[in-house]
Structures are given as C-alpha cells and as structure tokens.
Design brief:
This is F-box associated domain-containing protein. 3% of the residues lie in helices and 40% in strands. It is mainly beta. Strand 7 and strand 8 (86-90) form a beta hairpin.
C-alpha cells in the first residue's frame, strides 16, 4: 500500500499473472499485468499494463521514496513511479549477495554484508543525488562476532536488516540466526538480544502516530480508553 501524493489517496499495486489468469477466463476484459486499486473508491482495480513487473511478486517488501516504490533485484533497483504509474530502473552499488533497501532522513539506503558475515555495509543516496543515482558508502559496521559466539555459540547470519531512525544517530543493525534476533549499533557493539523458538519475522514495521486518517470511521461521542456504558 502507498499514498498517492497528488490526491492523498491510498492505493495498492497489484499484479495478475498468466498462471492464474485462467481463473478469470469468463471475464474477457481481464488482462495480464499490473493493476492499481484505490482503497475506498468502490471502483475495480485499474489495468496499467507493465507485464514485466511479474518478477517483483517474489521480492518481499518495497520502499517508498521520492514518490516511487523501490525493489532491489539482480544488482538493479526497480522503481514504480506512483504518479506516472510506470516502471523504470536505477543503478545500485555493486554488492555481493543479498541486499535490502530502507529509507531514512530523506535518503534511500541499502544494507548488505560480506561473505564471511563479519561486516555490514550501509550505502545511501542523498535526495539531491537521487536523480544522478550517486551512491556513497555511509557506514562499514564490524560485527562483534567473537562476543556473539561466546554468548550464543554458533553464529551464521540468516537475515540482516538495518533499522535506522536517523543516519547520524540511533542506527541499529538487526541480525537473525537460529532462534536469536540481535541488535548491533553502528560502532559494532552488541546492544540487545531476543530469543524465541520458532521466531518468524515479517516485512511489517509498526510506528506510533497521532495522525488522524479519514478512512477510519469516526464514532460520535466516542472517547478513547473510557469504560463502556451499561
């Protein structure tokens, strides 16, 4: 889901694959490709073409930045322009292995780790450099591998993600291995650890907000945290 800047509407980017198109054979107007659905509009999803976007289905999550949804795949960043409703590509830093995108402080960031899982690299592109696609290596975090092995035994990264509230402070690297989830700060210090058997992560990040949204129904005379009347 993303917010369409010109209208303020909340929209969904959908894709109908040829693999499931047969389910809609009774509807000749249904076409393979990308669709945009406006939440609360009462209108069906609108076909916008772009059949090449099918590969993005298997990429978990996207990052909304500079009016576009961003995915990293095969050393290239794919972008969906939410205003023009078209796809394009963007250069990315040359990295080996998996990489993940994030957004913070008007910057688009990318995190990755080396083959030995001893260092995490954080690349960023400033908003003023976005058009020219100029990336810079912002941080090189040396992980406290010895300390982690002493405390937790074997250490093999399954998942690495950067959680950043600001690229000048409070930058945390989130590591997952076995049933452990660890937080490491930008100086390579182990901050916290969380253990839970069968730990399953999601791509959803929750953030507290006091902003009112018009698509939530407002109840007259409703007061938060009051006892129900009898």
């Amino acid at each position: 889901m993303y917010q369409h800047s010109p209208t303020g509407e909340y929209r969904l980017l959908l894709y109908l694959s040829v693999a499931v198109k047969w389910m809609y054979s009774a509807l000749p107007e249904v076409q393979e490709g990308s669709y945009v659905f406006t939440i609360g509009s009462g209108q069906p999803p609108r076909h916008i073409g772009c059949p090449d976007a099918e590969e993005l289905i298997c990429i978990p999550g996207s990052v909304l930045f500079h009016g576009g949804l961003h995915w990293y795949t095969n050393h290239v960043i794919k972008i969906f322009d939410t205003t023009a409703e078209s796809f394009r590509q963007m250069r990315s830093p040359f990295v080996r292995g998996h990489a993940r995108l994030f957004e913070v402080d008007s910057m688009l960031g990318m995190s990755t780790f080396n083959a030995e899982a001893t260092h995490v690299y954080i690349w960023v592109v400033q908003e003023q450099d976005y058009k020219d696609e100029v990336w810079a290596l912002k941080y090189r975090v040396e992980l406290p591998v010895s300390e982690i092995r002493v405390q937790f035994g074997m250490f093999e990264i399954k998942y690495c993600r950067v959680r950043a509230e600001s690229c000048e402070r409070d930058v945390l690297v989130l590591l997952e291995f076995d049933d452990w989830l660890l937080q490491v700060d930008i100086n390579g210090k182990l901050v916290a650890g969380f253990h839970r058997r069968g730990l399953i992560r999601t791509q959803v990040r929750l953030k507290q907000t006091l902003v009112l949204h018009t698509f939530f129904t407002t109840l007259e005379d409703y007061v938060v945290n009051t006892l129900p009347s009898v």
